[in-house]
TrEMBL record:
<keyword id="KW-0812">Transmembrane</keyword>
<keyword id="KW-0813">Transport</keyword>
<keyword id="KW-1133">Transmembrane helix</keyword>
<feature type="transmembrane region" description="Helical">
    <location>
        <begin position="129"/>
        <end position="147"/>
    </location>
</feature>
<dbReference type="GO" id="GO:0015740">
    <property type="term" value="P:C4-dicarboxylate transport"/>
</dbReference>
<dbReference type="Pfam" id="PF04290">
    <property type="entry name" value="DctQ"/>
</dbReference>
<keyword id="KW-1003">Cell membrane</keyword>
<keyword id="KW-0997">Cell inner membrane</keyword>
<comment type="subunit">
    <text>The complex comprises the extracytoplasmic solute receptor protein and the two transmembrane proteins.</text>
</comment>
<comment type="similarity">
    <text>Belongs to the TRAP transporter small permease family.</text>
</comment>
<comment type="function">
    <text>Part of the tripartite ATP-independent periplasmic (TRAP) transport system.</text>
</comment>
<feature type="transmembrane region" description="Helical">
    <location>
        <begin position="89"/>
        <end position="109"/>
    </location>
</feature>
<keyword id="KW-0472">Membrane</keyword>
<feature type="transmembrane region" description="Helical">
    <location>
        <begin position="49"/>
        <end position="68"/>
    </location>
</feature>
<protein>
    <recommendedName>
        <fullName>TRAP transporter small permease protein</fullName>
    </recommendedName>
</protein>
<feature type="transmembrane region" description="Helical">
    <location>
        <begin position="12"/>
        <end position="37"/>
    </location>
</feature>
<dbReference type="GO" id="GO:0005886">
    <property type="term" value="C:plasma membrane"/>
</dbReference>
Amino acid sequence: MSKMRSHLNRSEEYICCLFLAIFVTLLFTQIIVRQFFQYSIPWGDEVATYLFVWFTYFGAVVAAKMSAHNRVSFHFNYFPPMVKTVCETLADLLWIAFNMYFVYLSYDFVFNKMNLFWKSQTTGIPMKYIYLILPIAFLLMSMRILWNVVDRIKGIEHDDPEVEELRKLSKNK
């Protein structure tokens, strides 16, 4: 299980970095080509938009892995440790339920309700491949949240990296 988890960690982070690198490179190329050669890559903006969307959803998956999603949780710190764990676990289970419902809806949309002939404007890519990120990302997020719940029950905390950084800074003062 931990080997699969480790491989998934690296894969998600690699894909996220790859999409960001291609996105930035494509936009930079678009700017250079427009400014210096008075030419525009016809499909550049469209592909950059799709890459940004995929990057954003994979970024959300990576954030779920690190428990770095925005959530109102300051009040949990006033609870006894057991109550805090139960409340955070219930909140995460509700989040998983929402995600799984969205996986169902998005899968149904992509594979059953979407017109097979919908294609992107300039590239001609079938739109179902663009929208496929929805069930993929929400399923991966659910897996991450579930793993975090299991870790929390085992006593392993996954704090937001910013919270950990603040703790380190406050200890150094």
